[in-house]
Amino acid sequence: MAGNAANLYDRISWWDDVNHLANWAILVGGFGLLLLRTRLQAWPIFGLGVGFGAVTAILWELLEYVTFIRNSPELKTAYHEHAR
What we know:
4 helices; about 80 residues
């Protein structure tokens, strides 16, 4: 919310990417901590954590598209780096 209030998404080209990476790391870390309570070894925990992170990132992007971009007047330039 602070990034939106300070207009960082429009002023800093990499701001959205850093936020997605940080949120992904928090989700994967939390899920990994839950998996540590199981009897799984390290590599399966790592694989399940990254898989969980990938699925949630894909779902997030789909929901972000449906919610914010699909009917936006900025759709024509939403995925072009040079437009920012």
